[in-house]
Amino acid sequence: MKVHEVFAYLSVHDAAAAVDFYVKAFGAKERFRLNGPDGRIGHAELDLGGTVVMLADEYPEYNLRSAKTLGGTAVTIHLHVDDADALIDHAVKCGATLEMEPQDHFYGERGGSVYDPFGHRWLIGHTIEKVEPEEMQRRWDAMSQG
Fold it and tell me: Looking at the domain assignment, is residue 80 inside a domain?
């Protein structure tokens, strides 16, 4: 068996507002949406630079609950961009909550993180240097030892 693709699939408490936010804050392009008879979005697809993120409203009757309802998320979505500082600033201006200011990291990336208004965490970064895994481990070890 071969895996062909992996998609992030977000359950949100207001999918229509989430689509609007992701378009405005991250430059996503809405591919399509399926509206349910009760007004909830049953499925929507967004294109973020050639990568698809799927989302839908909460459907508690199918045990599909949002990060906001659950009080947090264990998943972080990483956006690799041209200018992390600019996108983080823009996302915050669009309503995201800053978690971590952009900074240079040992693994060769400059980045920070935000929470969107729907409870999902986004790590946003760009490459500042190519670092081989062995060097990353050395830096991690040094950082971990203080």
Answer: yes
